[in-house]
Amino acid sequence: MKPTDDVREALADLQHQQWSGWMEYLFNKCQLRTDEGRELPIPRDDDLVIPGAYVHNLKRLMATPYQDLTENEQESDRIEADKYLPFITAAEQRGREEGEIALARKVLAVSSGVRKQKGFTQSKRLQLLTSEMNKIIPSSLGFELEDYQTGKEDE
After folding, report:
1. In this structure, are strands 38-39 and 48-49 parallel, antiparallel, or unpaired?
2. pLDDT-derived band of residue 69, with 50, 70 and 90 as boundaries?
3. What digits encode the pLDDT tens for the residues 91-118?
4. C-alpha separations of 1 from 66, 68, 95, 98 in Å
5. What are the distances in angstroms from CA 141 to CA 18, 42, 129?
6. How far is CA 89 from the centre of its chain?
7. CA distance linking residue 109 with residue 131, whole number of Å
8. Which of 1, 27, 85, 120 is deepest in the core (most CB within 10 A)?
């Protein structure tokens, strides 16, 4: 399933917000560059220095697999990951709806084909319909149509 342009743009917007938030956080950790302990007379944006201890911590985080992070570090990543969940949920819902529509189309096609069979009794049509539906439904619902007719799906 290919994401729509709207979804892609919304994800790109979220990514930019996360990047911008990270940069603001990083810049707030930085210090103004000084000349022999004195602040430069005209501070500029490019006169920021990341403190050595913070660089060391960032390198440690970059080299640490997620499962080895502290609980607080993992929670920070979870908070960022949570921002993607609405997009994933929407995509899953769209996939379920598309799957349900495709299944309904298959069921209608099989049902229509069975109805068109000439010379079949109602019982024979039901048997044929059950056989044809079992080719479609088990993979989608996880049980045999015959089980449903006999109530075995509750077991």
Report:
1. unpaired
2. very high
3. 788 778 887 777 777 777 777 777 777 7
4. 28, 33, 8, 10
5. 39, 69, 17
6. 6
7. 14
8. 120
Which helix (DSSP H) or strand (DSSP E) does residue 34 occupy? Answer: strand 34-35
**Which tokens hold the place of 3?**
């994401």
CA distance 18 to 20: 5
Give the C-alpha separation, 102 to 87, whole Å: 22
pTM of the entire predicted model: 0.55
Contacts of 134 (CB under 8 A, 6+ apart): 144, 145, 146
CA atoms of 129 and 124, how far apart (whole Å): 8
Give the Cα separation of 138 and 135 in Å (integer): 7
Please list the residues that pair with 54 across neighbouring strands. Answer: none
- Amino acid identity, residue 98? E
| Token reading at 144 | 């045999």
Instruction: Give me the phi and psi of 84, to 5 degrees please.
Output: -90, -20
